Amino acid sequence: MDDDEAIRDALSDLLMLEGFACHPFERASAFLAEVGRAPFDCLITDMRMPGMSGLELLEHLRDLGSDLPAIVLTSVVDERTRARSLALGARAWLGKPVADEVLLGQLRLALRDRGAAIPRGPAE
Questions:
Q1: Which residues carry this modification: 4-aspartylphosphate (predicted)?
Q2: In the sheet that 90-95 helps form, which strands lie side by side, from edge to edge?
Q3: Calpha distance 116→102 (Å, rounded)
Q4: Taking 60 as the threshold, does the pLDDT of residue 123 lie above it?
């Protein structure tokens, strides 16, 4: 989830090329509207978004009792926000720009720990 369309598109393209199902959202509110209706195995979110921030989203998910793993992909350089995100259950805090393999590695770890299906590599 990212409010920057170019970043959302690039991330979606990367994930789909690697065989992952991907549902991009511009805002946390749009994601939250779908959480109860569609199954999600992992959340990749930015910190700075309009409306609800990534940190607020993580807090909201925790308050709902969600165990959805989250990966933070952000340009925010703030140790307190990073520490709070990790305390709220974020699996990783990755700075932008991030190498594709680093992000994909963290995603695969989160999915493995959740017992979710992991694509073997680029989709044919």
A1: 46
A2: 43-45, 70-74, 90-95
A3: 19
A4: no
